[in-house]
Each structure stands twice: as structure tokens, then as C-alpha cells.
Design a protein that fits this description.
CATH topology of the largest domain: Rossmann fold
Distance between the termini: 48 Å
Main location: cytoplasm
Bound molecules: the ligand Nc1nc2c(c(=O)[nH]1)N(C=O)[C@@H](CNc1ccc(C(=O)N[C@@H](CCC(=O)O)C(=O)O)cc1)CN2, guanosine-5'-triphosphate, magnesium ion
GO cellular component, one term: cytoplasm
Shape: flat
Structural class: alpha/beta
CATH architecture of the largest domain: 3-Layer(aba) Sandwich
Number of strands: 12
EC number: 3.6.-.-
GO biological process, one term: tRNA methylation
Pfam family, one: TrmE_N
Length: 435
């Protein structure tokens, strides 16, 4: 697709609404406004305009129109917004009129943001943060996404990158001056120190990087135990709706059933599973295979067995929380956590416990790394830096320089910029090589 096209799309979703926003971006924006809105309004001010079908001259809507001149716009191009009435017919009329203009076409998914990235308005982490913000279901997820949209990860990676460019400049200069006594040794020492320090900083970030990924994806709680223990009943009580079938027949649940909840601002997904037992029923057996797969992904497992029919959980796995169900059936005994889906007894205590577990695993949204993509790139970066440090220790300057280049490329992948020009600029600026 040519980026010279002018693109348009509804920015406000598709349901019935009071107002719908149509977004336009590209070099044909002014022409489109002249054609459909009778002129280009004063930049960045909302103006009330009558929109007309350019072919028939008939009135499409009374709309609020905003013009954003490039390059100081969201995409970096000329852009506009038409705030129209939200009905399907009005929207269809405006979109049809825009589509008939030369050089104008409907935008592809994410195309406005893609242009913002290509025009240098956003780096990749900001693009990812924007996507996460739109998907965020809880406040903690939104907070994390906003920090990334605001450039926190991008700035940190850029700052590491600059330090590494300095180290690489030192290494390359040391190689250039290899025949000049003490100079190379001190440059190599400085580069080695920087590589060691950066590897340490990145490793520290990596140590708690899973919290950011978990917050993005949600904390996964699996309900498991013997058949008929009351797993589906508890799921329904937690979801406050009839999400799963409950029956007195053991082996009722076969497919895993997921319910996403907001636990005090934290995203938690509860998964009800088929009860575990030996069985000849092929459908039930497939259900149990699925239960085992879900248990592998769980951040916490609620192991349920009834007070009147005990079946203890596997020992030694810290993710398991043992809960005795149907507490209404027999008086309290022992120290197990007890609950009843029927009376609601014990459920507030369970939610408390899970909030604490989820809070510990997710943090409140101060993690820097939120995606596997970031984590993998940082892991490669830190490994390359450790190799560079080792190479310098045995006087292998060329190898060390190559590893630092690999580390730089890994960082560049995070922000979406991979170039060598900056290294050269830095090298020539820092050293007056007058020879
Ligand atoms: N109506 C409307 N609401 C919206 C957006 C939008 O595009 N339109 N946004 C879109 O996602 C978000 C706001 N984000 C935006 C980010 C940058 C610019 C922008 O034009 N930036 C220029 C000028 C900034 C200024 O006024 O000082 C710049 O950064 O140079 C606009 C919106 C959320 N709300
Ligand atoms: N008295 C009492 N009965 C309960 C309670 N919770 C569930 N039951 C009953 O126990 C039976 C089984 O409940 P389910 O929630 O379907 O059990 P399950 O663990 O999902 O069973 P499977 O899907 O077969 O593995 C049903 O008859 C429920 O009404 C409870 O707290 N107290
Ligand atoms: Mg069930």
C-alpha cells in the first residue's frame, strides 16, 4: 500500500451511538475537507460544518470538524476528524462520500498508528502500549499500558543504547590505535566496565520481567479436583452468573470454561475444569487431558474437595491452594480453608487470598518489560554483553566489538530502530582522529 494514499476510518467503534468520529489522514486531507465540508477549518479548533455529498450536493450531516496540520499531528501527516451523528445511515453516507474521492481509501487495521510509527511519532514500545491500552480491562493494565505509551521502556532502551554506542566507539578506537601503547588498554577497560554495568542493569530488569507480562495477560487461576467437588458451582459464584453447568452427576464439566474477572483492579482469569478421576468415558477422558494442560499454565490452582469426601491435592507445588467445599454439609474441623458455594461462606476470604497472590505476582504496574518480545531481546542483549566482557578479559577486542554490535541490534529491535550511522557519528564526534 502506498503511504501517499489518504486513509479514513471510523475511530469510535461500530454500535449505535450519539456521536461517531471519522478519522482522516494523508496528503489529500485538505482536499477532502474542501469537498465534503465546504472548506478547511482553522487548525486544531472544532468547527460546526454542514457535510454534503460531493456528487449530489445533498446534506449528509451537521458535524463538528477538526483539522490537524502535519507534521504536528498523531500520524505526522495532515489529518482531520469528522464528529458526526452516530446513526448507521449518516455514517455510511459520510464513508461512501470519502471513498469516492480520488486517492482516498478505507484504512487497514492499525494503519493510522503504523503511519505514526513510520513518521517517527512513536517507537515500537509506544505502539504496543497503545494497543495494550485499548485492550486494557482493568485499571492496573491501563496504568502499565499508559506508562509504555508515554515512552518509559523506549527511553530506558535508548539510554542503554547510547551507553553501548559509547562502548563500541571505545572498542573501535582501541582497535584503530592498537599500535599506540596505553591508549587502547584504557579504552578497552572503559568499554568493558560499561558492558558489565549494562549487563547487570538489564539482568536486574529481566529478573522481574514476568510481572509485566502477567499483568498484560492476566493472573490465571485454575479450579481443579475430583468430580462433583463443586468446582463449577464455585466458578458461577465467583463470576456471579451461570457460566458453567452444575449437576449432581459426577463428570458434568468436560471443556475448560474461562471467566475473566477484575479483582480489585487486577485482571484474574478463573478456569473451571473437568474433575480428575480414572474413567472409561472417552469424552470425559479428553476433558481430563484438557484439565492437565490448564494446570500447566496456572499461576494458582484452587484444589477443591468436599468436606464429606476428602481427596487431598498433590503435595509440594506452591501454586496449589487446598479448599474444602460444601462446608454447609458438616461442622468445621481441622485448619483447611472451607467454603460453600451454596451459602457463600468462605468466599470473601478466598477472594482476599487470591487478591494477595495476584498482587504479588503482578505488581501494580511498575514493570518495564511487558511482552515476551522485549524479554527475549533483552536476554540476547545481556548474553552478548557477558560474552563481550569475557572476550575483553582475554584481549579479544574484535570479538568483543562484534558482541557489542549484537547487543546493540537486540536493543534496536525493541524500539524498532536498527542502524549503524549513529555509531559512526559518535565515533567521529568523540575522537579527533587527525591522522
Ligand atoms: N478526538 C480524539 N481523541 C483522542 C485521540 C484522537 O486522535 N482524537 N487520540 C489518539 O489516539 C488520543 C489522544 N492522543 C493524541 C496524541 C497526539 C496528538 C497530536 O496531535 N499531537 C501533536 C500536537 C500536540 C499538542 O497539541 O500539543 C504533536 O504531538 O505534535 C493528538 C492526539 C485519545 N483521544
Ligand atoms: N450442599 C452443597 N452442595 C453443593 C455445593 N456446591 C456444589 N454443590 C452440589 O454438588 C454437586 C456438584 O456440583 P458441581 O459444581 O457441578 O461440581 P463439579 O466439581 O463442577 O463437578 P464435575 O464438573 O462433575 O467435575 C451439585 O449437585 C451441586 O449443587 C455447596 O457448597 N454445598
Ligand atoms: Mg463441573
Amino acid at each position: 500500500m502506498l503511504s501517499t494514499d489518504t486513509i479514513f476510518a471510523p475511530a469510535s467503534g461500530f454500535g449505535r451511538a450519539a456521536v461517531a468520529v471519522i478519522r482522516i489522514s494523508g496528503g489529500g486531507t485538505r482536499f477532502a475537507l474542501e469537498t465534503i465540508a465546504g472548506g478547511v477549518p482553522e487548525p486544531r479548533r472544532m468547527s460546526l460544518r454542514r457535510l454534503r455529498d460531493p456528487e449530489t450536493g445533498s446534506v449528509l450531516d451537521e458535524a463538528l470538524v477538526v483539522f490537524f496540520p502535519g507534521p504536528g499531528s498523531f500520524t505526522g501527516e495532515d489529518g482531520a476528524e469528522l464528529h458526526i451523528h452516530g446513526g448507521a445511515a449518516v455514517r455510511a453516507g459520510v464513508l461512501r462520500s470519502l471513498g469516492r474521492m480520488p486517492g482516498c481509501r478505507a484504512a487497514e487495521a492499525g494503519e493510522f498508528t503504523r503511519r505514526a510509527f513510520l513518521n517517527g511519532r512513536m517507537d515500537l514500545p509506544a505502539v504496543e502500549g497503545l494497543a495494550d491500552l485499548i485492550d486494557a480491562q482493568t485499571e492496573a493494565q491501563a496504568r502499565q499500558a499508559l506508562r509504555q505509551l508515554g515512552g518509559e521502556l523506549g527511553r530506558q532502551v535508548e539510554s542503554w543504547r547510547e551507553d553501548l554506542i559509547g562502548a563500541l566507539a571505545d572498542l573501535e578506537a582501541a582497535l584503530d590505535f592498537a599500535d599506540e601503547g596505553d591508549v587502547p588498554a584504557s579504552l578497552e577497560a572503559r568499554a568493558g566496565g560499561a558492558a558489565r554495568r549494562l549487563a547487570g542493569e538489564i539482568e536486574a530488569v529481566l529478573r522481574d520481567s514476568r510481572r509485566g507480562e502477567r499483568l498484560r495477560e492476566g493472573f490465571v487461576v485454575v479450579l481443579a479436583g475430583p468430580p462433583n467437588a463443586g468446582k463449577s458451582s464455585l466458578l458461577n459464584a465467583l463470576a456471579r452468573r451461570d457460566a458453567a453447568i452444575v449437576s449432581p452427576v459426577p463428570g458434568t464439566t468436560r471443556d475448560a470454561i474461562e471467566v475473566a474477572c477484575d479483582l480489585g483492579g487486577l485482571p484474574v482469569t478463573f478456569i473451571d475444569t473437568a474433575g480428575l478421576r480414572e474413567t472409561e468415558d472417552v469424552v470425559e477422558r479428553e476433558g481430563i487431558v484438557r484439565t492437565r494442560a490448564r494446570l500447566d499454565q496456572a499461576d494458582a490452582v484452587l484444589w477443591l474437595d468436599p468436606v464429606d469426601d476428602p481427596c487431598p491435592p498433590p503435595a509440594g507445588d506452591p501454586r496449589y491452594i487446598h479448599l474444602r467445599t460444601k462446608s454447609d454439609l458438616s461442622p468445621a474441623a481441622g485448619q483447611d480453608l472451607r467454603l460453600s458455594a451454596r451459602t457463600g461462606d468462605g468466599i470473601p476470604e478466598l477472594l482476599d487470598l487470591l487478591s494477595r497472590r495476584a498482587g504479588d505476582a503482578l505488581g501494580t504496574g511498575d514493570a518495564l518489560v511487558t511482552r515476551e518480545r522485549h524479554r527475549r531481546a533483552l536476554e540476547r542483549c545481556a548474553e552478548a554483553l557477558r560474552r563481550a566482557v569475557d572476550a575483553l578479559a582475554v584481549d579479544q577486542g574484535e570479538l568483543a566489538a562484534e558482541d557489542v554490535r549484537l547487543a546493540l541490534r537486540a536493543l534496536g529491535e525493541i524500539t524498532g530502530r536498527v542502524d549503524v550511522e549513529a555509531v559512526l557519528d559518535r565515533l567521529f564526534a568523540a575522537f579527533c582522529i587527525g591522522k
